[in-house]
Give the backbone structure.
Amino acid sequence: MWVEEKAKPESNRRTVGMRQHFVNGLVYCTGDMVHFSQYMEDKAFIFQLVEWSMRGVARVILANNPLSGVLILGALVWASPWQALLGTLGLLTSTLTAVIIGQDSEEVSGGLHGFNGMLVSLLMGVFSSAGDWFWWLLLPVCLGGATSTFLYSGLAPLLDKWDLPVAVFPFNMVILLYLACTGSSNPYFPHHPATPLGELESNATQLSLTQLLQGVPLGVGQIYACEDLGPSVLILGATLLYSPLLGSHALLGSGAGTLAGLSVSVRHRALYSGLSGFNGALGCMAVGGLFFTFTWRTHLFSIASAFLSAYADIALSNLLGTVGLPACSWAATLTTTLMLLLTGRSLSAYRIPTGRVMAPEQNIRCHSQWAARETTDSTDV
């Protein structure tokens, strides 16, 4: 009897210990994984390059976590191995270009010089009408990835004056230049012309609620030009791993973008595939905890940013679609930039300096520490 009673607490202690190890391991894999970066500092260059690249993959969706990058790359391979190959090549080209021209090592290791090249490559593959495994496409993919790094390097000093992130300005510029230069009938690099979101459908059918709801998570996948449900859910899971707050805002913003599309009767195909929601997702994530500390004010602000990004995307799509060009993520990029330039006292107090941006949960903790420090300093004076 005594032996049984003694064994029970030991087994309970073992269960609690295992549970604690699991929680600690999960916490280690969330957020920016700063400890992993410190661990990789003295490793061989090839291993460091892999870590930088995985952070670059995750940076597309505003995350900074190598494990999230691995999951997202797996989702892209699941959706299309050819697209995953193009994205990886563009990512490596832009990252290595930054290393060669001597860009800031902290920015390179954080993946900031890789995600624009990846996006350029993914969009080149999506719009190409030559089909998968068209090997000649690797040439513009490499050139586009390198060009995005040069543009990033040139824009950074200019935008730093206003404490603004470069974001995906290079990607939007490079992909529009490429598509405008090649054209839909180019003999070497042909591509599909973009269709305006507001174009009327000749054979429009009744709206399907099931497909409409599927369009919300697909809006998150469309940030990587992915319109398959399974990979899109995995991309959302990778975002939630980095930050539950960021992942929930991604879904919220995509839903807001879908509602915005419904309100102005965009094509059903755009609603079902997530094209109507991905700019809203980006706009909502950027404001809802990433560049602003999460509060009820900034939460409402992020919803407004999502709707504004979605409506701006529809307008730009209709405008650029007349010449067969896509609106890409211009809407979310410009909207977020405008939001960051607002100087109202109720918002500027929650604005996070670009160089201090971390996972939203960490931003909340750091903001409370800064506020406490400022209160202490004012009391001392």
The radius of gyration is 22 Å. The chain has two domains: 43-192, 199-381. The chain is about 70% helix and 0% strand. The mean pLDDT is 88.
